[in-house]
Every structure is written in C-alpha cells, then in structure tokens.
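Ops channel
N.P.: pipeline sanity check, posting one input/output pair.
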C-alpha cells in the first residue's frame, strides 16, 4: 500500500490567523479571543501549521479612517517576507474595511508565497486564480454593501425614534431619570431656578459658583462648569423638543422650561456673544467711546467716572482731557457731561433712525444702493396708498368693511416692503438681531459692543457743546439736549 501523501506539501499551508474587533456589521462586536479560537480549531482540523497570530481592535475607527491596524501591518510584513501561504479568518469583513486593502493583498499574492484567504465557514478564495480573486472582491463588496445597509437601517431607526419624540439614549440628561422621560423633580427645579436667574440678568458663572457652593452636583455627580450649564440651559430638550438633523419633533418627555424662557435665554446668550469679551481687555463701559467730541476744542471725549464723595453720588461722565497723563496734550480739558442722559439721548435718536426704512439706504453696501432705493420708493408708495385709504374712508368713498379690509391689505404690503428692505441693512448688525425682533427690541438685551457698533453705523460723531448751567431738566436728569449735536453718516 502506498503511503497516502498529503495533497499539498505542508510548506504551502503555512497559516496566519487574523482576528479583528470591529463594529461595522451588526453593531455587535465579537471578542478577538473567540475569533482566534475558532480559527485555531479550523487550522487544527485541517492540520495547517499556524505560523502567526494577529489581532486588531478597530472599534471607533471609521471605514475611512487611516488609523493603522498595527497587527494587520505585521501580517502584511510577514506576507512580504514570504512566510505566509494562507490567511485564516472567521469572515471576510474581519480582514477588510475597504476594497483597496484587498487589492493590495491580491497584488502581493502575485509576488509572494501567499496563496489564499480562507474563512472558517469553509469558503476559500484562491488568489492565484482569476475566479478566486473575483470571488474575494465580491465578498468584500457584499460586506461593504451590507455595512452600508446596516448603517442606513440604524439611521432610519434613529429618525423614526426622533419623529416619535423618543430619547436617543446616551448619558442621563440632567433633570430626568436615565429613561430620559421621567422627571427628576429636584434637578428640574434647579434648571427652572437657573433659567430664571439667567433671564433676570445673573451671569452663568455667578450661577455656577452658587450651585457649586451649595453642593448641587451635575448629572455626572461632578461640579458644574460654565460651559456645561450654558449648554444645558439652551437645550431644546428642556422645552419638550426632540431635535434630529435640524428638524424638531415634539418629545415624549415633559418639558421643564417654556419656549418663552428658552427664547429669552437665547437672546441673552447672543447678546453676551456679541459683546465679544476678550480676556485681558477691560469691558467697555461707555457707549459713545470714539464718537463723542468736545464742542470747545474738537478733541475726543472719553468716559471718566467721578467717584462718589460725601455730598454727591458717583457719576459716569464723558470728559475732555487736557493731557494724556504722559506730558502730551489732548484737548482743552474744560468740558464734561453726564454720561447717562447723553447716552439715552443718542440711543433714542439712533433707534428712531432705525425705525425709518430709509436708513437702509445708508446701511446698504454701495453696489446694492439702486435696489435699496427702489425698495424705499416702493415702501413709500405703499405707505402713501395706505394713507390715502384713510382719506377715502373719511370722504365716504369706502364703507367701514371695505376700509378695514383694504387697510389690512395695505398694512401687509407695507410690512412686506419693510421686510425686503431689512435684508439690505448691514448684515453684520442684523445678523445679531433675531428674525422676530426689531433692532429696538434687540437693543434691550444686547451688549455694549453691539450697541456701540450699531450707533457707529449711523452716527459720525456726537458733539458736546458747552452749556450754560441752567435749571433745565430732561427725563429726570440735569441735562439739556439742545447742547448735543448728532452728526449722521449720510
Ligand atoms: Zn475740549
């Protein structure tokens, strides 16, 4: 009896086991030890000599990730060195993230001892034949397709959950139990308190200090930080909204705050952002810095407070300085004016100007001027039309019903024209104004830098003329607006 020889000499069966921990299939990951054990027993059953064991952890790496799979690189090096004939894996996606990687391996098979890829479910890809190469490419393609399908399925499910207003899982949101739906009353009360305090003018950092001083822990049981509280306060979750990809859905959980509160906080946050408080730079305290000029000598006036003394209160003032404090001269040094009424006067004038759509002309970039002029004319025409309706009504040309109807149509037309105009107002300034707020409304919550920028848009300078001290009062201030001259940028 002739000795039964093995079909292939064992030197052609040098096998490398490769395992990879990844999540790109069902979202589950199979332990590498289990994968390697499965490969080992398959190799043993076939009497293939295992010459190397390799495993990588790919969790968290995207399919586009260039993150090196270190053991994979060792495997490739062993192949290049001619030590490997067979790569044994549990299934194709364990070996490849991308088709390009397989192509590299196919090229290696042309020049090295590598012959095939074998899976433990019995599929063999013979890289020395065209059929084998095609089968391997198909397997990787199918795996990639399947991964894409799974990811679509996962996304569809996420979207469905979002539409149903369901929580997306993850860490326990502050104010709720870990199911994301049941209120944790103590924390909900903290959120309500913080929102109320923030809206009433306290800074987030003051509130954070207070929470930490009281020993109120965050959702993770840690100390509060300014960023985390700011983020929480503006989360739409707290007004009962589930957001997904920029779309809002009514949530299944109860709201803690009202939409009104949310909007007020958003406005405050925006105002704070526009203040642009850079570190190291003292906050501005005077609205008209750089715009106020002395009416006697033409020098710039600057804000300089008068400190309180025993018989008089502290006062914010603008004043003309004689010297710069380093021996240089600036101005006459003889003029000063109380800051509060001066700023109030300029503010009122400026807001009045912004109420007038014609201002848009001066604010528009030069190349839009024609369009803006046309829009202003249209606006004026519509306003005139609305006015003439009143006359028609007064002259009995219209019934009360006709007048009411026509008036509302005319008003809508005027609004529409006004809206078209605002689009041409200074984008930088208006970008800071919420769509449903006028500049006048935004002013109330805006920071000083924003206000100053707005004033500077239309005001060239504010000239403070010498005033004879009289007994005149204005808005409760000892101040005479007649001595203030506003030069507009027109
Ligand atoms: Zn002066």
């Amino acid at each position: 009896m002739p000795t039964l020889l093995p079909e292939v000499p064992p030197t052609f069966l040098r096998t490398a086991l490769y395992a990879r921990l990844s999540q790109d299939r069902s979202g589950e990951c199979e332990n590498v030890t289990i994968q390697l054990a499965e490969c080992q027993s398959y190799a043993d059953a076939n009497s293939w000599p295992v010459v190397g064991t390799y495993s990588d952890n790919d969790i968290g790496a995207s399919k586009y990730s260039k993150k090196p799979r270190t053991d994979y690189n060792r495997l490739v090096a062993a192949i290049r060195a001619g030590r490997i004939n067979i790569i044994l894996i549990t299934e194709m996606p364990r070996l490849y993230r991308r088709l390009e990687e397989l192509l590299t391996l196919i090229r290696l098979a042309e020049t090295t001892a590598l012959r095939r890829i074998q899976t433990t479910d019995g599929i063999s890809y013979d890289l020395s034949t065209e059929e084998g190469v095609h089968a391997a490419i198909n397997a990787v393609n199918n795996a990639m397709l399947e991964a894409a399908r799974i990811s679509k399925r996962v996304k569809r499910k996420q979207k469905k959950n979002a539409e149903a207003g369901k929580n997306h899982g993850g860490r326990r949101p502050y104010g709720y139990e870990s199911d994301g739906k049941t209120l944790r009353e103590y924390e909900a009360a903290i959120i309500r308190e913080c929102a109320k305090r923030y809206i009433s003018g306290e800074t987030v950092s003051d509130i954070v200090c207070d929470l930490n001083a009281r020993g109120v822990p965050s959702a993770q049981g840690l100390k509060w930080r300014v960023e985390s509280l700011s983020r929480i306060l503006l989360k739409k979750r707290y007004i009962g909204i589930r957001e997904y990809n920029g779309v809002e859905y009514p949530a299944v959980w109860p709201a803690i705050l009202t939409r009104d509160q949310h909007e007020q906080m958003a406005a405050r946050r925006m105002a704070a952002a526009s203040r642009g408080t850079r570190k190291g730079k003292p906050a501005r305290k005077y609205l008209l810095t750089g715009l106020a000029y002395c009416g006697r000598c033409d020098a710039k006036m600057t804000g300089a407070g008068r400190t309180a003394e025993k018989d008089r209160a502290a006062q914010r003032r603008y004043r003309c300085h004689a010297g710069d404090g380093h021996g240089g001269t600036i101005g006459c040094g003889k003029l000063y004016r109380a800051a509060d009424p001066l700023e109030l006067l300029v503010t009122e004038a400026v807001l009045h100007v912004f109420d007038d759509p014609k201002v848009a002309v001066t604010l528009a970039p030069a190349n839009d001027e024609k369009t803006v002029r046309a829009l202003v004319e249209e606006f004026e025409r519509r306003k005139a039309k609305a006015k003439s309706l009143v006359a028609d009504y007064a002259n009995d040309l219209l019934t009360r019903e006709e007048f009411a109807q026509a008036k509302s149509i005319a008003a809508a037309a005027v609004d529409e024209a006004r809206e078209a105009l605002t689009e041409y107002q200074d984008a930088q300034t208006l970008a800071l104004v919420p769509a449903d707020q006028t500049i006048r409304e935004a002013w109330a919550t805006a920071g000083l830098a924003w206000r100053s920028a707005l004033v500077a848009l239309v005001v060239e300078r504010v000239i403070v003329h010498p005033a004879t001290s009289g007994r005149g009062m204005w808005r409760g201030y000892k101040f005479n607006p007649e001595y203030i001259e506003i030069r507009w940028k027109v």
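N.P.: looks fine end to end. The first strand starts at residue 15 and ends at 21.
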